[in-house]
Design goal:
This protein is mainly beta. About 10% of the residues lie in helices and about 40% in strands. The chain is globular and about 70 Å long.
């Protein structure tokens, strides 16, 4: 008869102590990872404004202003011209686009050349909105004139390059162009991202500086698969394709402006599932800026002959307020102009920039309650304040490498500092002057 012996493993006191320590750490990690974040953070809601005027004779260079949307006093809310994109006035550096990811703003820029010459110094500036400083620059080929960009994911962004007739693919962490998409673009400008595809508007115009004449060719919208960077389709659209947005679900909305003469504008709705045009709305004017709210209502700046706001219901495919009945004035302040670019805040209030291109200092951002067209706020910004986007800044010391994302790379970097003590250590997330398991937990919460 075979005997089966069961042995019992005895733990030493030191092993028992280690076990208890591991259990304690495990319990601590579980509590922290499933509970609220350690400490309290002060959230900032900001409107980020690019002051786009460059004027060598007046010493004006393009700059950035920030509006604290949580400050009730209009004057105290604005930090004006907190940084400039060039200190050399004669460079005439243009800042033409704005995209925000977390606390980082990405701004395409180039030096404006003399008529007929190629641009120079083409790049994308990276601004840390929390620290209010330029933290990086992504070089773009000179002469490309980058226009608008979209962040595809943490690793990649697309930027339209009008003069090069290309879309450049950028490696965000390494801050360099890895691929150039070409062959289907003509003066690409606008870009929007929906359901794994990028939609690029191609105005297709060329200016002859000798003849001082603009020629308009056939406009299109180019569709790109953002996973493979393959161009899927080119959709013919009316003359001078311009702003392009999406409703967050299934529809791409394009504005065309015509030739500013005998060819007028259109609205074009594209089904993002089939990439076919659903509807084309002919306009009897040259439209200005557009913005879409959460109710899928497209607000449109009217023509200079008949200024005011028009509203088109994208879902119902019908006008709420057409050119014969625009919102001509603020209901409580008819003397404040409503002309300018448009952008909806997360709470569906409408922000309207009113730049003074003369350099006279009458540059405003005005906030409209679209329910009754009343003026809620009026902020004075910098010269040519015309491009606006929104940012919610949550202090994130967990972003160890300051790339705008909290991910495994931050965890890896922080682990190298484990046990280090003293002030100012980059991996000391909770600020207690020692890098330990608590700092790693905080980074884990941000993943």
């Amino acid at each position: 008869m075979n005997k089966v012996f069961f042995s019992r493993r005895h733990f030493s006191c030191s092993q028992t102590h280690k076990l208890h320590s591991l259990l304690l750490i495990g319990a601590l990690l579980f509590t922290l990872l499933t509970g609220p974040a350690l400490g309290q953070t002060e959230i900032q809601d900001l409107a980020v404004v690019i002051n786009a005027l460059t004027h060598p004779d007046m010493g004006i260079t393009a700059s950035l202003s920030l509006i604290d949307l949580m400050e009730p006093n209009d004057n105290r809310a604005v930090d004006n011209e907190i940084l400039h994109f060039s200190t050399e006035v004669l460079n005439r550096r243009r800042a033409v686009g704005l995209s925000i990811q977390g606390h980082l703003a990405y701004i395409p820029t180039f030096n404006l050349p003399i008529t007929g010459a190629a641009s120079s110094g083409d790049s994308i500036f990276i601004i840390n909105l929390e620290d209010r400083e330029i933290v990086g620059e992504i070089p773009i080929q000179d002469g490309a004139t980058p226009q608008q960009l979209v962040l595809i994911n943490e690793q990649k962004l697309y930027v339209t390059c009008a003069a090069a007739h290309e879309v450049h693919v950028v490696d965000v962490p390494n801050r360099n162009v890895t691929k150039v998409l070409t062959g289907s673009f003509n003066k690409p400008t606008g870009i929007t991202l929906l359901n794994g595809k990028a939609y690029v508007s191609n105005p297709a115009w060329e200016y002859d500086p000798v003849e001082r004449q603009t020629t308009y060719y056939d406009s299109t919208v180019t569709v790109i698969d953002t996973e493979t960077d393959i161009i899927l389709k080119s959709i013919p659209v009316p003359t001078n394709a311009s702003s392009i947005v999406n409703d967050g679900e299934s529809t791409i909305i394009l504005k065309t402006t015509g030739n500013y003469n005998d060819v007028l504008g259109h609205l074009v709705m594209i089904d993002a599932a089939t990439d076919e045009i659903i509807k084309t709305v002919k306009l009897d004017f040259t439209p200005g800026s557009v913005a879409l709210n959460s109710q899928k209502q497209l607000f449109i700046q009217g023509s200079w002959q008949n200024p005011g706001l028009l509203i088109y219901d994208v879902a119902a495919q019908d006008w709420i307020q057409d050119e014969d009945d625009p919102i001509a004035n603020f209901s409580n302040d008819p003397d404040a102009p409503i002309g300018g670019s448009l952008n909806f805040a997360p709470d569906d209030t409408l922000y309207i920039t009113n730049p003074d291109w003369s350099g006279g200092g009458q540059d405003f951002v005005r906030v409209m309650d679209t329910f009754d067209a009343s003026l809620l706020q009026s902020y004075r910004v910098g010269p040519g304040g015309s491009i606006l986007a929104f940012a919610q800044i949550i202090p994130r010391r967990e972003d160890i490498n300051n790339d705008g994302f909290v991910n495994a790379e931050d965890l890896s970097i922080a682990s190298r500092f484990l046990g280090d003590q003293g002030p100012g250590i980059v991996a000391d997330v909770n600020g207690d002057e020692v890098v330990n398991i608590l700092d790693l937990v905080l980074i884990g919460q941000g993943l």
